[in-house]
Every structure is written in C-alpha cells, then in structure tokens.
Design goal:
The chain has about 425 residues and is α/β, with parallel strands linked by helices. Helices cover about 30% and strands about 25% of the residues. The chain is built from 11 helices and 18 strands. Strands 1, 10, 11, 12, 13, 14, 15, 16, 17 and 18 form a 10-stranded mixed β-sheet that branches. Strands 2-9-8-7-6-5-4-3 form an 8-stranded parallel β-sheet. Strand 10 and strand 11 form a beta hairpin. Helix 7 runs parallel beside helix 8. The longest helix has 20 residues. The chain is globular, with a radius of gyration of 23 Å.
C-alpha cells in the first residue's frame, strides 16, 4: 500500500483566515498570493502577537552553515523538528543540504509529502503504525530513509515487520553515553545488537553509526563519546559489517557541531565514510544557549573564525504593550502560548511606536520577568517613554518551542513587508 493523501494539493499550502498572527483574510489563500496583499508589520496590517522570520537573516544563516560544513568536506542534514516548516526544508535543500533529519514517523510523512526524498530519522522507529507509516512511504523507490537501532528487541521488531512486507530498511547503530538518552552503552550491548542485525540481514541494512552529543554538557566528555563512535565505526568497517558504501557517520546538534566536525574529520576514514552533521537551530539561531555556543565556536574554531560574521537571530515575536498598570511594569500581550520560555524568557530587541519612521533598539534595561498564558511582565524604568499600543519585537531563546506555537509565521523583508507566510506541521 502506498501513502497517497487524497487532499487537494493546494490544501497543504493554503493559509487559513483563522490562524493567529495574520492580517485579514476572507477565505483560504494560497501562500504565493500573500505578497500581493501588501501587508506590512509596521502599518499594523497584521494581528499581534505574531511570529516573524527575517528573510535576509535566514539566507545569511543558510549560507553560513552550508559553507562551514562544506569546508570540512562533510554533508548537512539539518534537523527539521526545529521548525517543521516544509518551505524552510526546501530552502535548506536548495542551498545544498544532503537531506533532512527528523525525529518521528509523523514528521517523516510530512517531509515526504512536501518533496523530501532523503530522510534521516535520528530516533528509534517503534510501534506498529509508525512502522506502517514508513513502510508505506518506502514503496516509493525514490525515498532514501534511515532510522536508528540500539537494542536487539527493537531490531527484532523491525526485522519481523519489514520482512513480511518484503521491504529493506536502512538502519544506523546509535552510540550513547551512560546516563544519557538512547544508544548502545557498551560492548556487550553492541554485540547483542550486531547479533540481532545478523538475524535480519535480508530486511535490515546496516548503513552506519550515529550519536547525539547534545545530551552531554562538557567538551571533554563530548570528545570522548565522539572518539568512541569513531572506534566502533572503525571496528565495524574492518569486520565488513556495513552494507552501505560509503558507510554513514553522523552526529551534531546545534551547540557542538564544530567539535563533532573536528573529531570526525580527524578520524581519517577518507572515501570509506560519508559524514553527515545535523544541526537544526542554526537557521533561525537565538539569543540564548545557541548564541553562547556560537560565540564559543567563533572564538575556538579556525574555519568559523575565518568566515564572515556568525549566525544571526532570524525569529522574533512581536506584541503590543497592553497595559502599564504601575511604575516600572508594562504588561505585554504575549505569553507562553506564543513564545518559548523553557530556556530563557523572550528578550526585548526592537521598539516601535506606530507612525514612527522605523523601529529602534529596545533599551537594554528592559527585561521580561514573568510569563503567563497570554501575558508577559516587562520590567521598565519609571521614566521610560512607553505607551499602551506601542509594539515590541522580542528575540527568542530555543526556537523549537516557539515554532510549535504557531501554524503560520510571517516572512518579512528589510522594510517589514510580509513577503510570504510559511506553515508549520506539528
């Protein structure tokens, strides 16, 4: 059975007038028609709060990361779970990405139905319907798909299911640290996994080795995990275990991709390996943990240091000042349903009073101190020139948990014109 969606093709891209953060629409509108509506953020043509992406910064980040990865002679498979915006997947692939990384069977299906044909699911594939989703997609011979394994039990489930369908599934052995998340911990577990793969060699294709170093916090322990993965890959290659040539070696989240690149490049596998790095948050960047990571990378990585300026925050949430009920406090019409708050609260970046020529930088002493479902508490000075109805653009920490709060995001040019609206599929 193939996976054919019976919806009209336009229904995947149509903008609903009931989505938040948009201007007025009478009915469903195709994404390519949005620009002609002439919306502009500063003219208050859209309902706030709204989430926006800055085209110029997106393009800068796309090219920066692709240049960095290419300099190491590696491939890029950005993690799509960050945005779950197929339009952004398209941009990443057109800029040179090898494929798209995803985390769940549902995400894989979304990407496939938006044209992605090389997918690395950096997760274990478990459960009957999840296996069925992937199985239906694999009836399309143009799809190149990989998932992870780390246990004999999981391998037996995959082998049994796909052998009955007559489908071969590409798998990567995941290496994980003690106290971490998923992944093989030691040689005993590795032997168990290899024995299980041997039982199902007609339906499961061992294609390489994978890890995710982001579960660790110190560079020393990250390098140790990376070296362990290299050692396992070297052993399996010497034993002729891989059924893909070249075999895959893959890792890297958004904080330590430079260290992953250094260690994997230093392994000396040559043409025997295809190294794939998987950062996701680079596309929009942020002003929290990933900005700190980028600062470290620019200071310590020679390739990044030689490149033009680093990654730029390309995602903001704009909202109105709703109330100034007491001295030193403004209430902003933006809350936990609009912006991430798990890894730092939104940071005021831009201030605009409708009718002014352009936004200004927000004063550095402004700070969000608390968020509720639909409100944010902004600490200000008693003599700040702030009024109800003023607009503030907030930078975000941890973009993943801002994207998932929006069905549609606006793409702006440097004049704050809305040139596109993109969909999320969470």
């Amino acid at each position: 059975m193939s996976d054919q969606i019976s919806l009209h093709p336009s229904s995947l891209s149509a903008i609903s007038p009931l989505n938040k953060g948009l201007g007025f629409l009478h009915d469903l509108v195709e994404a390519e028609q949005i620009r002609a509506l002439g919306w502009n953020l500063l003219r208050e043509d859209v309902s706030l709060p709204t989430a926006v992406l800055y085209e110029e910064k997106l393009l800068h980040n796309l090219n920066w990361m692709q240049e960095f990865i290419t300099a190491y002679g590696m491939k890029l498979a950005p993690h799509g779970k960050t945005t779950m915006v197929p339009r952004l997947f398209e941009m990443q692939l057109k800029t040179g990405a090898w494929g798209i990384t995803l985390a769940t069977a549902h995400q894989v299906r979304v990407a496939y139905h938006h044209g992605v044909r090389r997918i690395l699911m950096a997760n274990q594939l478990t459960g009957k319907e999840n296996m069925a989703i992937v199985g239906r997609l694999l009836n399309d011979p143009s799809l190149e798909f990989y998932c992870l394994v780390d246990s004999a039990r999981g391998i037996d489930q995959l082998g049994s299911y796909y052998s009955k369908l007559g489908i071969r599934l590409n798998v990567l052995i995941e290496i994980g640290p003690v106290g971490g998340r998923t992944g093989v911990r030691d040689d005993e577990q590795l032997s168990s996994v290899l024995s299980a793969l041997a039982r199902w060699s007609e339906s499961l294709t061992l294609s390489g080795v994978e890890l995710f170093e982001g579960v660790l916090g110190e560079e020393g322990e990250i390098r140790e995990l990376l070296e362990r993965a290299v050692s396992v890959a070297r052993r399996l290659a010497a034993e002729g275990r891989f059924q893909r040539d070249p075999f895959l070696l893959t890792g890297a989240g958004s904080a330590w991709y430079d260290v992953v690149a250094e260690v994997f490049a230093g392994a000396g596998f040559g043409d025997a390996v295809e190294i794939v790095l998987r950062p996701g948050c680079y596309l929009t960047h942020d002003v929290g943990a990933y900005r700190e990571a980028q600062t470290r990378i620019l200071q310590h990585n020679s390739i990044a240091g030689r490149m033009r300026s680093g990654l730029k925050p390309a995602l903001q949430v704009w909202a109105y000042v709703q109330s100034i009920p007491e001295t030193g406090r403004a209430i902003i019409a933006m809350g936990k349903r609009d912006a991430a708050f798990d890894a730092g609260l939104p940071t005021p970046a831009l201030f605009y009073r409708p009718g002014d020529a352009a936004p200004k930088a927000a004063p550095e002493h402004w700070a969000v101190t608390k968020m509720m479902d639909q409100h944010a508490f902004l600490q200000i000075a008693g003599d700040d020139d702030l009024q109800v109805g003023d607009m503030i653009g907030f930078d975000i920490s941890h973009p993943c948990l801002t994207f998932d709060k929006w069905k549609s995001l606006l793409v702006l040019n440097t004049q704050y014109d809305v040139i596109e609206v993109v969909h999320t599929f969470f």
